[in-house]
Amino acid sequence: MSEKLPENQGEDNVWKKRALHLQRMLNDRDTSVAEAQLLASAIAENVQARPPLKVRKYAPRKADPKVRGGILDIGDVHWGETVDPRNTGGFAYNTEIAAARLDYTLDEAIEIAKDHRLGHLDVILGGDLVSGAIHDDLNRHNEMMVAEQTVSFAETMYGGLEKLLSAGITLDVTSVSGNHGRVMMREKGYFKNKQQENYDWISTKMMEAYAKKQKGVEFHVPDTVWALLEVAGRRFLTMHGDTNRQQNSMGISFYAVEKEMRRLKTMIVDQTIEPHDDVISHHRHQQFMVPIGNTMFYNNGALKGPDEYGMMGLRPPEQAQQQMIIVQEGRVKAHYPIVSQHVAGRAE
């Protein structure tokens, strides 16, 4: 019969064995470290240094616009409208806020263009650039008369284009008219001369006149309510979007969007409009993308941000934002929401 070990002696033996094992591991590690240090010293002493290179400062070339391009989409500015923070729980809007948000948007666009080495941008002016006076609500809260809105926005927006030009970016500017700028100031819209009988159209024509002697900027103001532009091998159709009926809903009717896309595809087949890959739309004051087949429907947000109309209706009010799209070799490479709600977005 084996002799019974005194109390705790068995446990002590276990700990002694573990201590010896750990000591061996440390000894082995010290030996390995010493050998590695000797090897490193031998390499440092015996390997000959190579002659230093002359390091050049990195200066990337601008991308070929045929290969890579960008679209800056500006729409639903509603220049001249005021949003009273008393009616919105603190959200405000006026021309001072609009100018600050527009300036911030352009600064962000310049940084994005630099990141992608773009020396050229297509700028879309997507309609509802001015507040207009088509609703009684607008007559209550407009900051200035419609003619003054038109002139004031043209001066401010052209100053923004000059900012892009000063950053070394050449421009193609395409403009489509919205519903708020209708010259015939009444609730019900019209279709004859819809693009031209519009204060958005007049404002863009003023900018075009400002740019008569300016190199690096071209304006494209079609007579149709849509426009086509090709960027880096991809074709886009842009329109304001008020002609896309939404079943009397203030929300996003994706069925209505799909129906619109299928109508446009039918018009391509009928050769009413030229072929295009994607659609860039506005009007809904919400930024979203809807893929339909191999086509994407890009809807831009609004510079105005939350207002009384959205808060009292069924459409959730969305933060102020615009969009920028990067295209490379015929494919959309990146989509950037440029959010400006934080720029004087809430009254204290």
Annotated CATH architecture: 4-Layer Sandwich
CATH class: Alpha Beta
Please tell me how large the radius of gyration is. 31 Å
Shape: elongated
Across the major sheet, the strand order is: 4-3-2-1-10-11
Output the structural class: alpha/beta
Question: Can you describe this structure?
Answer:
It contains 8 helices and 11 strands. With 348 residues, the chain is an alpha/beta fold. The longest helix is centred in the first third of the chain and has 38 residues, at 9-46. It has one domain (68-339): Purple Acid Phosphatase, chain A, domain 2 (4-Layer Sandwich). The protein has a 6-stranded mixed beta sheet with strand order 4-3-2-1-10-11, with helices on one face. It is elongated and about 100 Å long.
What brief labels describe this structure?
348 residues; alpha/beta; Purple Acid Phosphatase, chain A, domain 2; 5-stranded mixed β-sheet; 19% strand; elongated
